Amino acid sequence: MDINLLEILACPICKGELIYDSTSQELICKFDRMAYPVVDGIPVMLVSRARRVGDDES
Fold first, then answer.
1. Lower CB density within 10 Å: C or N end of the chain?
2. Is the pTM of this model over 0.70?
3. 3-52: which CATH topology?
4. Where are the alpha helices (DSSP H) in the chain?
């Protein structure tokens, strides 16, 4: 994931900071507890494609 891209991306729900998880290839919003997939290096910032982050993951 390009660090410059990560600096300008924001959560589509709250506009907050995203954290990149290289293990799961996801961008995570800790506030909304949503994880957005990164497919072939491209972030998919659609709420419909996001998943809820469980209590054990945050």
1. C
2. yes
3. N-terminal domain of TfIIb (2.20.25)
4. 3-8
